[in-house]
Each structure stands twice: as structure tokens, then as C-alpha cells.
Design goal:
Blueprint: E1 6-9, E2 17-21, H1 32-35, E3 41-42, E4 45-53, H2 59-71, H3 73-80, E5 85-93, E6 112-120, H4 123-133, H5 135-142, H6 154-164, H7 180-200, H8 206-220
Antiparallel strand pairs: 1-2, 3-4, 4-6, 5-6
Helix pairs in contact: 7-8
Length: 224
């Protein structure tokens, strides 16, 4: 008997269940923003978790693409342009751990590509940016999964991510109202303020302190 590859979605307290034939998943839309959007947003940060079945024999290629992305600086430079991303990671799931009863042992029929990310902005803006900035990398990674329509045009790509986006049961951000740019600016500001504090201890003349303080303000103005 031939098993048809399926895309999957994780429901709270339930096993992986099919949401559609992988051959047609690219045109099936599941608006998780309406169903699960509240749980996937904390302040200005949003989470996406995607799990897609990898075609038989393609897992080694996925590992190679991941290795290249990690060790080739030219590939990393493109992602740096996406400064609104807090975190992004791809991993490969080859099996589910068995923790004893009442859990039933489950064997996966395919390896799965697991993607998780946190970012600032809307769901659509995030997928648009991936499609525009790193289309070849998206094709190299997700092209090994069933049903992937390609990163361009972006419409079918969004439908594919929608159909395989997992529900988020809990989402927490340490700085929910801060964007990645805000956090980086705060870190730079703290470093420069610490340096100025050390320098200021040796300044005894008020005019010299004013000049040093004015120079400090000019230096940090872009991070305020």
C-alpha cells in the first residue's frame, strides 16, 4: 500500500495530524493568525513554528545546506539584512522520543524539517522579506520538502507556510515592547555609558566635563 505524504500541524495535546495532501498543500490556506495569533504574539514579537515532511533521500542535502549556511559568511550576510529577526533556526526531526505510558510509541514515516523563529512585525512582512532577500536559501532548504511551491511568487509560499505553521501553546518575550534594533541600541548605549562613567571620574574641571559630556551625547544620539 502506498502512503501519501502529508503536511502536518501540531494541535495542543494531540499527535501530528494531516492537514492536506502534500501535492496540493501549496494552495491550501489555514489562517493561524485568526486561530492562534494571540498566543503567537507577545508585545512586538511574533513566533512562527513550521514542520514539513522531507522527501525520501533528501535529508543529507538538508544537512549540507545547513552546514553551508553556518560556515559560509556570504550566506550569513544576507540574513543580517533582516534586522527584525530575534531568532531563527532550522533543525531535522528524525524521530519522536518515547517517554513511557500512557504515551504510545510512534514511528515517523518521513524525516521532518523543523523551523522556528521570533521576529518583529507581521506574519506577512516576515514571509515577504524571506522571499525577497534570501529566495535561493529558502529554495535550497524547503525545496527538499513535499509540496514546496518555491519562494516566488510569494502567494503560494505564504499558503505553504500557513498550512504547516504549528499552533503555539505558550509564548514569552523578556522585552515584549522592544524590537531587535531597540535591544541592540540599548546594549551599545550601556557599553558607551560605562566607558564614559570611567572617563568622567578623572575629569575635575566643569568645562572639560561639559565638553566630554556633549561629545558623549553626540556619539550616542542614534541609540537614544
Amino acid at each position: 500500500m502506498t502512503r501519501t505524504p502529508t503536511a502536518t500541524r501540531q494541535r495542543s495535546g494531540s499527535p501530528l495530524v494531516p492537514v492536506g495532501d502534500a501535492r496540493t498543500v501549496a494552495v491550501q490556506t489555514v489562517d493561524v493568525r485568526t486561530v492562534d495569533g494571540v498566543r503567537a504574539v507577545d508585545g512586538r514579537a511574533t513566533a512562527i513554528t513550521v514542520m514539513t515532511p522531507i522527501k525520501p533521500g533528501m535529508t543529507p542535502l538538508v544537512r549540507l545546506v545547513m552546514f553551508a549556511g553556518e560556515h559560509l559568511s556570504v550566506l550569513a550576510e544576507a540574513l543580517v539584512k533582516l534586522s527584525f529577526i530575534h531568532y531563527a533556526r532550522w533543525s531535522i526531526v528524525t524521530g519522536l522520543p518515547y517517554n513511557g505510558p500512557p504515551q504510545e510509541k510512534e514511528r515517523l514515516h518521513y524525516d521532518y524539517l523543523f523551523f522556528e523563529t521570533n521576529f518583529n512585525g507581521t506574519w506577512d512582512e516576515y514571509i515577504d522579506a524571506f522571499s525577497e532577500v534570501v529566495p535561493n536559501r529558502m529554495k535550497a532548504i524547503w525545496g527538499t520538502s513535499f509540496g514546496f511551491p518555491g519562494p516566488r511568487p510569494v502567494g503560494p509560499f505564504k499558503a505553504y507556510i500557513h498550512a504547516n505553521d504549528l499552533a503555539v501553546d505558550h509564548y514569552y518575550g523578556a522585552y515584549p515592547e522592544a524590537t531587535t534594533k531597540t535591544v541592540l541600541a540599548a546594549l551599545r548605549l550601556r557599553e558607551k555609558l560605562d566607558a564614559f562613567r570611567v572617563k568622567a571620574t578623572d575629569i575635575t574641571d566643569p568645562d572639560d566635563f561639559k565638553r566630554a559630556y556633549d561629545a558623549f551625547l553626540v556619539d550616542i544620539q542614534h541609540d537614544l
